[in-house]
Design brief:
The chain has one domain (5-111): Glutaredoxin (3-Layer(aba) Sandwich). The chain has four helices and five strands; from the N terminus they run βαβαβαββα. By secondary structure, it is an alpha/beta fold.
Length: 118
């Protein structure tokens, strides 16, 4: 994982996602290791991380680890992977399933408030 991609769990979610999203958009990947589309999207998210650099953070939540399924329940996730974009402490957009790089790039540019001049 890169510096922009990090793991979170039920106990660190508020600090590393909700609070951190006040500083920059955080893309949350809710995934499971038995989920084929989850494994497909992982390297695409790595590319997204490199393209956007420190403009966004990417948090990975393995739903089968510990109590993390409670996060999936809280956010009413119905399938995996589900990608949720948080900014200013709020969910602003989401999508489910493995998507190509161009889709994810457009999704972030459309929904996230990113200042490309910094």
């Amino acid at each position: 994982m890169t510096d922009s991609i990090f793991s979170v769990d039920l106990h660190t979610f508020d600090k590393l996602v909700i609070q951190a999203s006040h500083n920059k958009p955080i893309l949350v990947d809710l995934w499971a290791d038995w989920c084929s589309p989850c494994l497909v999207i992982a390297p695409i998210l790595e590319k997204v991380s490199h393209e956007f650099g420190d403009q966004i953070g990417i948090a990975k939540v393995e739903v089968d680890d510990g109590e993390n399924m409670k996060l999936a329940g809280h956010y009413k996730v119905r399938g995996f992977p589900t990608i949720i974009l948080f900014q200013h402490g709020e969910e602003i957009a989401r999508f489910s399933g493995a998507k190509p790089l161009q889709f994810i790039r457009h999704f972030i540019e459309e929904h996230a408030d990113i200042d490309w001049n910094t």
